[in-house]
Each structure stands twice: as structure tokens, then as C-alpha cells.
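Appendix B.2, paired examples.
Example (i):
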Amino acid sequence: MLTGVNQPLAKQVALLEHILRLNPALYELITTVAQLKLPNLYVGGGSITQSVWNALFHQTPGYGISDVDIVYYDPDLSVAKEAATQEKIAQQLAGNQYTIDVKNEARVHLWYAQRFGKTITPYQSTEDAISTWPTTATALGVYIDENARLQAFAPYGLNDLFMGIVRPNKKLITAAVYQAKAHKWQQKWPDLTVVDW
């Protein structure tokens, strides 16, 4: 268990920042993408969560991280604008070791049903989208603010993250999706505690 459990949020975010800084490539990505000033921008999901699990379970900082999610909220719903933003980010991050996955959360409802077989209402913000991510520990986004300080959005808190608990967030996903993700993660981090659906 990390020392961030049951601590004030400011202390938890400071610990999160310390852990993320242990992986210079990831922290540089977070810092670099912030310079693009995209609306309602976060770096989130697995790469952030897995960095903490690596600290918790004594793995190397980049262990198990396959890609990095970059999410933002632009009311311009055109495919062309999202593609241009994706290209801009790719150019800015050229040379970074991670595969990036960039999404305008304002557009997700336009393709979600075709990809996942379920219609969703449009998200109202990036925070709204993050609140639906599959688990309490992975529903997490970070960004660097104008004062060069790490900020975090964690709608379900950070205790599950710091304790290595995988708990379903049932807002959007199915039991099958949750179980598949939990199984995949337990293969890499066998000491995770997975809560049943």
C-alpha cells in the first residue's frame, strides 16, 4: 500500500506527480501536450494508473504501459478538425516512445454505438467522459496547469488506485468488458485486488 491512502487530496496528487516523474518519457509527454493549449485537455486512463501500480508493486516505471490516452473537449465536431488536432499532437510528440490515442470527447457519441453496440448521450465535458471510464482507479486524468503544476481529476477518488484495487465503474461498461480488462491487468500485475462485478 502506498502512503497516499486516506490522505488529503493535495498530498495524493503530490504523490501521483512524484510517481509520474519516475517515468521521464511519460512525464515529458504530459508536459509537452499541455503546451498545445487544447480545450479541457487531460492525459488519462491506463498509463497513469499503471504508473502507480508499478510503484505499488515494485515494477520499473514504464512496465506494462502500451499507450497513452490524450483526451480533450472541442465543440467543433468535424472529422477534419479532430484529424488536424491528432496530427498536431503527433508532430509535437514525435520521438516519444509511446503510442498515443487522441480523442475529442465531444465526438464520442457519434461513433460509440457503431463500435460498441450501445448508444450514449453526448458528453458535456472531458470530466463527464472520464467519469464513465471502466474502473474507479482508471477513471483518472491529469494535466499540467499554467503554473506548471500537475492537476488531477479523479471522480472516484484515489484510494483504490493507491491500494491496487480494481473496482468496476458500471456507468457505461458491461460485466464482460470489465472482466476482460481486469483479467488482462492481473496477468501483468498479479497482486491487484479485483472486485467482482
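Example (ii):
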Amino acid sequence: MKTYPVSFLFLLQQVSLGGLFALAVTPFQDLERGFYKSTTGVLVVMALLALWGKVDLYLKSYLPGDGLMATIDLSIFILFVVLILIYFVSLWGERVWIRARAFSTALLLGLAGLVLTSFGFHDAPIGSIETVLYPFSFLLSSLLLGAVTVGMLIGHWYLIDAGQSLDPFLRVFRFFVVVLIIHTSFLVFAPAVLYFLGAPQAVEGVEKLWNDHFFLLAARLCVSQVGPLILSYMIWQTLKIPNTMAATGLFYIALLGVVVGEILGRQLLSLTTLPL
């Protein structure tokens, strides 16, 4: 089935885009540039791996959608990767205007590519509820993956420079919690919305979800939503001490839960065509 390899590969693309959004939350003037170099380096690796896979799938006519849409999708992502690489390299120089434009343009292109890719996972007409819910779901997953990844990485930076203000760490943490709550709410209510307002394919997918894959959905919610929500409370308590080392360790566990949950979500997408 095409859906699973494409959606699994899409996860890497989402990490790189969501990571940029999480970096945008941080106060650039309050953190050493070394943090942005190391964190962006991780995002670049994710983006390059995703590009490698997308090119391979494109050559095999395996990307979703028709030939033109697949070509546009790949072209946009190539430009995204080029821009994130330009931003990464610019961190070693002082041309701030190049860095700022590369960063902001990469965000816009990443969003455009995410929306375009989401259209390949459903056959509903333009103007349907799927046209809104699918890209919104993928965006929330991207933001959550990026937030928990950058949260874990910024925690490591505090182990290196323990004397700095907690404000950047707290900003990323709050961003993570807000996205986690919104994403959890979406996963709870999206099946009902698609069942009552979606196209026949979505209605069939919801019926299949409840009849055949309910326990997989429950596992997805427990691992990637309930668990990290509990961990977020624990992270908050450790940051109040403050104990950034313990908070970083908890972010590690939250990252594991979110990634495993997203993999389960890709399996649900493959089995039911629902963006869960």
C-alpha cells in the first residue's frame, strides 16, 4: 500500500518543519548561536533524509497524486531543503538579512508543501471538510514533533550553559503544551466531524476505525497524548525548582512517546485513510 511508506516518510518532513516553528518561538537574542547551529543541524539531517526518500518515491511514481502534483510537491520540498541549508550555513556568518529571509521563506514553503502533500491522502473534492482537516492535522503533528524535539535539544543546551535565563526553555515548553492540548482535542473530535460532515470515504474510514482499530487508536492516544500531558506537568514542576537536567530527561521520554504515537497514527492513516 502506498499510503504507509509515504506517510512514514512524511514524518521526517514534519519534524524539520515543526522544528523551525519551535525555533521561531525562542528569543534569538537570548541564546548562543551554537544552540541554533546544533539544533538546525538536526533539522537539516531530517530534511535531507526526507528528500532522499521523496526523490526515490518520485522516481518510482510512488508519491500520492497525479504526476503534476507529485512534481510540484517534490519541487517545493527541494526549495525548502535548500533554504534551510542556507539558513544553517548563514549561522556561521554575520549576514543577518540572509539568515532572516531564508528562515521565514523556508517556513512558508514548508507550510505550502505540507498542505499540498495532505491533498494526496484523500479523494474528497475541494471545499469539503477534508480539505481543511487533513492539512490541519498534519500541521498539528508537525508542530508537536518539532516542539518536543526542540524542547529536548534546548534542555541539552542548558546542561552546557547552566547560568542562562530559563525564559527560552519556558517558551519552548509552553509552546509544546499548547500544541499538545490542541492536538489531543483534535484527535478526540476529528473522527466525529469526519463521520457527520465528511465524504463517503471518510465515513467508511471512521466505521472501520471503530469496528476494527479502536484499540490501536486508544494506544495512539495513551502513548502520544495522555503520557506526554502527564510528563508536561512533571516537566513544569522540575523547571520550578529549577532542575533543567531532570526536565531534559522528561522531554526525552515525551519525545519517545510522541514519535511512537505518530508512527501509530501513520498506521491508522494507512488502514483507515483518516489523519489521526
